[in-house]
TrEMBL record:
It comes from Actinomadura rubrisoli. InterPro entries: ACP-like_sf, PP-bd_ACP. This is Acyl carrier protein. It comes from the Bacteria. Residues 6-70 form the Carrier domain.
Amino acid sequence: MRPKDAVHELLVGRFNVDAEQVDPGRTLRDLRLDSVALVEFALEVEDRFGVRLPEEGAATMTVEQIVAYLQGASGPGEGG
């Protein structure tokens, strides 16, 4: 699954974010993930992608930045 689709699915399916609210320019904080949910989100991302999100600033990363971070970490030609 592409990182973009996986992040969307994770936010909607696991964290009950309204699908219409998951916009590339919105931050995790904009999507109303509290501190516990942020930690859980980071752990889920690490489990699924083997990539650790930066501990500092993850709450203020946009959906688009998270996807780009995951794509960059997966190496050239992977992800999507």
